[in-house]
Amino acid sequence: MIYLSWLRKKAGIRQDALASKLNVSRTTISMWENGSSLPSYDTLSELSKIFGESVDLIVQTITP
User: What does the alpha-carbon distance between residue 30 and residue 62 come to, in Å, rounded to a whole number?
Assistant: First the structure.
């Protein structure tokens, strides 16, 4: 989910700050970004709101 990392950095948000907004750990954010774990649909919806991107676009970047 490299796109999530790019969006986060573009927005100037650190992993720990994003984790706090989503009520997850920084490790969870890291796992999403390196592709070892995927966020739930509800979390994808929150990510969409935070970054102003569609859920579809975010999902397209994480599915092989």
Answer: 14
Q: For residues 28 and 34, give the distance between their C-alpha atoms in angstroms, rounded to a whole number.
A: 10
* Tens-digit pLDDT profile for residues 2-11: 788 889 999 9
Closest among 21, 60, 59, 13 to 40, alpha carbons compared: 59
- Are residues 62 and 38 in contact, defined by beta-carbon separation less than 8 angstroms? yes
Identity of the residue numbered 23: N
pTM assigned to the model: 0.86
For residues 55 and 17, give the distance between their C-alpha atoms in angstroms, rounded to a whole number. Answer: 20
d(CA 9, CA 4): 9
